Amino acid sequence: MTDANDRELVIRDLRVAPAANPEHEILKGIDLTIRKGETHAIMGPNGSGKTTLSYALMGHPAYVVTSGEVLWKGRNLLTLSADKRARLGLFLAFQYPTAIPGLSVASFIRSALNAKLQGLDKNPDVDPTDATRGGISMLDFRRRMREKMALLRMEDSFATRYVNEGFSGGEKKRLEMLQMAMLEPEFAILDETDSGLDIDALRIVAEGVNAQLNPNMGVLLITHYQRLLNYITPDTVHVLAAGRIVTSGGKDLALRLEEEGYGPILRDAGIEAAASEADLAVPQAPEAAVAAR
Ligand SMILES: Nc1ncnc2c1ncn2[C@@H]1O[C@H](COP(=O)(O)OP(=O)(O)O)[C@@H](O)[C@H]1O
Ligand SMILES: [Mg+2]
Description:
Elements lengths: L7 E11 L8 E9 L3 E5 L6 H9 L4 E10 L2 E2 L5 H6 L2 E4 L6 E5 H13 L20 H14 L10 E2 L5 H15 L3 E5 L7 H14 L5 E6 L12 E6 L2 E6 L1 H10 L2 H6 L8 H4 L5 H7 L1
Parallel strand pairs: 3-10, 3-11, 6-9, 9-10
Antiparallel strand pairs: 1-2, 1-4, 4-5, 7-8, 11-12
Helix pairs in contact: 3-5, 5-6
Magnesium ion (MG) binds next to helix 1.
């Protein structure tokens, strides 16, 4: 029997504060259910708590959860380490990926893949460093890397470079997508994967994401701009402001944000726009305007 709980991630009344300042809540009660096979977009002005949400879901130590629960596969994720969450199929593509000098892209991804193959309870019969005992064989690994790198149109030499060391903004985002493609998560959180990409890179990344969408993966797509949604069509769009989801709708909501900026929607929700209108506006990126023609 398949329990409905096996098919969805449920966030209930999630409240989150920085560990350094637990009195100051950034997220003030988030409720959200995302089923496998669905793509939900979260849009919101800068500073609204989008990255905090992605970090809280993944278990970043700089944040404390002051209340709420996140249910996934019959467990409350919030009680588990980030490592266990990843083993349970969660994946976060970082807004600002970090460099790891000395560690090659291939070794990094192979370690992550093998750790995941070990399972949640670290099956003792599986030795992730030993291809004959449950680790992916070098041949299979290379084959899979080649396939996924082709999908994201990456040069072969990419695999031997150090993780994010000297990478351009676009290369960093592509590496995040390569990790996702290799790890085949069941729930992927993409934090501003579109930021810093020119239009060609944006298209390649979006095609890469679209090629990975499947009925066994839920996606939370975090973005400040609507332009990514020209390429990846969300089932639902949520607007996050001041730590709460103030409204939800279809793709038309993203288009309305593009036309009007965040100001009117926040006013409708009774939120006094603290930031300037300039910050709240959702400018159409010039290259997106070109692509739209
Ligand atoms: N670790 C932290 N310590 C203190 N304040 C933080 C921390 N992380 C985020 N904030 C603050 O919380 C708010 C939301 O930040 P963030 O989640 O990064 O927003 P977004 O990703 O929507 O731009 C901002 O005002 C930010 O300065
Ligand atoms: Mg952010």
